[in-house]
Amino acid sequence: MKLCGRVHKYGANVNTDAIIPARYLNVSHPAELARHCLEDVDPDFVKRVRPGDMIVATTNFGSGSSREHAPLAIKASGVSCVIAQSFAGIFFRNAINIGLPILECTEAAERAEPDDVLEVELASGEIKNITRGIAFKAEPYPDFMLELISAGGLVEHTRRKLGISVSIEY
Amino acid sequence: MTITEKIIAAHADRKKVSPGEFISVRVDLVLSNDITASIAIREFDRIGVKRVFDPQKVVMVPDHFVPNKDIPSAEQAKIMRDFAIGQRLIYFEVGEMGIEHVILPEKGLVLPGDLVVGADSHTCTYGALGALATGMGSTDIAVAMATGEIWMKVPPTIKFVYHGRPQEWVGGKDLILFTIGDIGVDGAISSAMEFVGEAIDLLSMDGRFTVANMATEAGAMAGLFRVDGKTMDYVNPRAHRPYTVVDPDPDAEYAGVIEYNASRIEPQVAFPHLPSNARPISQVGDIPIDQAVIGSCTNGRLEDLMLAAEVLKGRKVARNVRCIIIPGSPQVYLDALRHGFIETFIEAGAAVSTPTCGPCLGGYMGILAAGERCISTTNRNFVGRMGSPRSEVYLANPAVVAASALLGRIGGPSETR
C-alpha cells in the first residue's frame, strides 16, 4: 500500500496525554476523539490536518498512558502514517492492533520538516521525501507483526485463529 | 533466565525463552477500568465470542471517573458495569471500589509468579509482588478476555541495584524518581526492570508498589521485585490459591546493570513536564504552590497516608493552598480512619475524598486553572495532565507534598519542624 501526505513534525516524548488529554476520555468514539487530537501541544493540528497527512516525531512517541484512544484519535483525524525514531511499547502495540501504520526510521524522522511531502510504501518500508528528493528505509517489521498487519489488526487475526468468519463492524 | 523470562516461559509451556522472541502466553488475570473497558468491550464483541475465557480471571474496576463526574463518563461506566455483571466478572462497585492497582493486591487477586495484563499503563505496579504485570491497550485486553492468551515480545531485563540505607524521608518514590531522572523517560524502553539491593530489601510493600508503579515512566514494560519475607507476609493472608515464587537463575543474563548508592539520594521533586526532570529537594528553590495532592495508584496506600499524617499532625495547611488527600481503597480509608490520620487531615484543613484516580489524570476532584501549580504524589507531570495545559505539576513523595502544603511552597518535612 502506498501512502502520500504532508508532514506534521514533533519532537521527543509526545505522550498519550498530549495526543488525547484525559478530559476527553469520557467518550470513546474515534471521530469525537479526533476533534481534540494533539490539542495541548499543537492546538492548530485539528484545523490543519488533511486526509493522508503524516505525523513525524523523534524519540519515544506515544509514551505514558496505555489509552488506545490515542492511536484511534490519530487514525480518525485522517493521518495515514506515523513515522518516528522510536515508539513507546504500548503505543506500538496499540497502533498495530488497530491498523494505524507506524514506521521506525531515525533518518527519515530527522530530515523531515513541516509540510514536506512524504511517500511511504508500507510493505517495503520505503520512505521517500518528495520535497527534498531523498529516500530512506524503515526498520522492517518482524514476521509476527506482518502477520497481524496483513490480517487487518489483532481482532481479525484472533477471529482467524478461532475460526470465526462472520464479520461484525461497528 | 531472569524472573521475567521464567514467568513468560512458564506461561507458554516452554523450557526457555530469550529476549526478542514473539510468544503467545496464558494470562492469570485481565484488568480494565472505566476508561479503557468500553473500547475493550466493543472489540470483544467484534471478535464474535459470547463469554470471557474465565470470569474469575477478568477484573473490571471503575476508578478513573467514578463516582461519575458527568453524563458521558456515567455512560462509559454503565457499559462496563452491564458487561461485568452480565459476564459475572470480578467487579468492584462504588463503595467497595478502590484504585485498581491498590485494590487488586489488597484483595489477593495478584500473586507472585502470576502473569497479569491490564488496560492501564500502571498495571506494572504488581511487579512488587514478583508477578509479571504489564499495561496494554483495549484491543489487547479484548483478545485476552476472549482467549485467555496474548502475544508478547520477550523483553530484555535491566537490573537496578540500590546499595546502602535510604536517608530519613526518602522512600520508594524518591528511589524511582531518582532512577528515571538518571536514565530518562525512555531509559528502559520496552524492557523489564528488576529492583534489588539493600535499600530495596528495606522498603515496605507499600514502598515497593510505588517503585514498580513508575517503571512505565521509564518506558519499561514491567518492573519486578524478588519475593522475600515481606512479600510473603503481605501475600499469605490474602491468597486464595497457590502461587509460585520465581527467582532469577544464577546465570541470568541482563541487558545492563545499573548501581546507585541509595544513602546519597535525597527526597526528589520532578519538575514539569516530565517525571525525569527530578531534582534533590535541596536544589528546588522557592516555588509557591496552589494545590497539594496526596493519593493515586502510586502513593495512595496506608504508609503514604501515615507519612502525610506525621507531617500534618497539629499543623495547618497554608491559607493559599488546597490540600486534597485521596485514600486508594476503602480498606486504606478505614485503616487511616482507625489510626486517626483522617482526623489529622481534616483538622489540618485538608479535603479527604472517596477513593478515585480523580485529579491524577485531570479527571476531576482537583483540576488546575491556567497558571496554577500543584505538587502531587501522582506519577505524571505532563503538559495538561491535571487540568489546564498552562498549569504545572511537580511530583514528590507524600511527606514532601504534605510539608509543601504547610509551607505554601515546595519544601521538605525537615523545614516544618
Description:
The complex is a heterodimer of chains A (170) and B (417). Chain A has 2 domains: 2-139, Aconitase, domain 4, CATH 3.20.19.10; 141-170, no CATH class. Chain A has 8 helices and 7 strands; from the N terminus they run E-H-H-H-E-H-E-H-E-H-E-E-E-H-H. Chain A has helices at 16-19, 30-34, 45-48, 69-76, 89-98, 106-111, 143-151, 154-162; strands at residues 2-9, 54-57, 81-84, 102-104, 117-121, 126-129, 134-137. Chain A has a 7-stranded mixed β-sheet. In chain A, strand 6 (126-129) and strand 7 (134-137) form a beta hairpin. The longest helix of chain A has 10 residues, at 89-98. Chain A is globular. Helices cover 30% and strands 18% of the residues of chain B. Chain B contains 14 helices and 18 strands. Chain B has a 5-stranded parallel β-sheet. The mean pLDDT of chain B is 98. The interface between A and B is large, with 48 and 52 residues.
Query: How does the overall form of chain B come out from the CA principal axes?
Result: globular
Q: How do the strands line up in the largest sheet of chain B?
A: 4-3-2-5-6
Relative helix content of chain B? 25-40%
Low-confidence stretches of chain B: none
The count of β-strands of chain B is: 18
Greatest interface by residues involved: A-B, 48 and 52 residues
Q: Describe the main β-sheet of chain A briefly.
A: 7 strands, mixed
Quickly give the CATH architecture of the largest domain in chain A.
Answer: Alpha-Beta Barrel
Q: Which band does the percent of strand residues of chain B land in?
A: 15-25%
**Into how many domains do the coordinates of chain A divide?**
2
CATH superfamily of the largest domain in chain A: Aconitase, domain 4
CATH topology of the largest domain in chain A: Aconitase, domain 4
